[in-house]
Structure formats: structure tokens, C-alpha cells
């Protein structure tokens, strides 16, 4: 099976105080369509740098990254933005909801940027909120929702755009353990529906809920 994500000998450097820091050191990794992968490692291990490259938020200094048959290095910024908009959904630890918008409006916002009409947007937003069991809270603002509910709104915002890949960076980091399990259950459900899920985490219990665990240390794959 051809990999959806192909990373070959990728390295990323940063320069600090005259010293070269290897954030990623010769990483080779394939992820096929429909996988549920956890990228695990301590803070500073390079896992978030890899997430940024996979998510087309950054590019590597060395190596090759092919996403769904396209070599990412050769693309312009506008093309990278289009890939992020169409193919990749992001879920972050801090939820990144706009406080003055309702749950419905937060989910709707990326669809507005995509240029969809109100008539096109409405069924997508309602379907996404229903998928995370928050349809009855669609008029509530983030301050009126619990942490777990806010994260579910963030997931719904991602789902509304129907991306084949979901990148989740420490998605349970701001939640209690019970709520964290509920959020991981949602990711498992989405994976069963065919989406490729990549979770970045330092939490072993979170990582073990994925079908494959990739471990990082000091910018290198260790397992």
C-alpha cells in the first residue's frame, strides 16, 4: 500500500547563539491512509517540529516529504496553505476557539474562509457538531463550555472541512484524565470512519490508545 505520508531522511536545523541545533535528525517514516499513529516523546524531542512539517506549517532543511503524491518542498506558500485547508485538520491543546463566537460560529469560520455559501455551510456545521455530541450547545460561547466541550468544538471545526488527515498536538494536555479518555474515544471513532489520525503526545497512556506508537528522543526516532 502506498503511503499517504512519506518522510525520507528529513532533518531540521535551528541556529541559536552561534550553535546549530538538530531539531530533527535524519527521520524516515511512512504513514498509510487510515492509520492511527501516536508520535511520542518528552518535551524538546522533536515531535512538534515533525508535526509542523507534516502539517505543512514548516519545511525541512534536508530530506524529502511527499504528501498524497506531492513533493512538499517544491510548493509555494499559497499551495501549502491550500493543502492545509483541504487535506489537514488541526486540533491543539489550547483549543484555539474565538471567545466572541458561539460554538456554531467557531465551527463555521474555516468554511467561510473557504468561500462556501451559508446554505452550503449550515449542514456541514450541524453534522460536525452532532458527530461530537454538541448539537444542543451550538449557541453557547467558549466561556460557557467545559474544557472537554471546548475541545470537542475544536474537533468539530476540523471535521466540518472533511480533511483526510487530522493532526492533534497534545489534545488531552489541558483536560482531566476522564475527559481525555472521552476525547481519545472520538479520535478512535473518526479513525474507524477512515480518517488518518496523528496524535502528538508525551503521555504514554494517550499514546497507547493509538494503533502504532512512534517514539522520539533528541530529534531521532528511537522506536
Discrete helix count = 7
Might you state the CATH topology name?
A: Rossmann fold
CATH architecture: 3-Layer(aba) Sandwich
What is the CA–CA distance across the termini? 21 Å
Name of the CATH superfamily: P-loop containing nucleotide triphosphate hydrolases
Q: What is the total domain count?
A: 1
* Residue share in helix: 25-40%
Description:
One of its GO terms (molecular function) is ATP binding. Pfam families: ABC_tran. InterPro entries: AAA+_ATPase (IPR003593), ABC_transporter-like_ATP-bd (IPR003439), ABC_transporter-like_CS (IPR017871), ABC_transpr_LolD-like (IPR015854), MacB-like_ATP-bd (IPR017911), P-loop_NTPase (IPR027417). This is ABC transporter ATP-binding protein YknY. Keywords: ATP-binding, Hydrolase, Nucleotide-binding, Transport. By secondary structure, this protein is α/β, with parallel strands linked by helices. It has one domain: Rossmann fold. Helix content is 35%, strand content 29%. It has 7 helices and 10 strands. The protein has a 6-stranded mixed beta sheet with strand order 6-7-8-3-9-10, with helices on both faces. A hairpin with a 2-residue loop joins strand 9 and strand 10. Helix 3 packs parallel to helix 5, helix 4 crosses helix 5 and helix 5 packs parallel to helix 6. The longest helix has 16 residues. It is globular and about 50 Å long. The two termini are 21 Å apart.
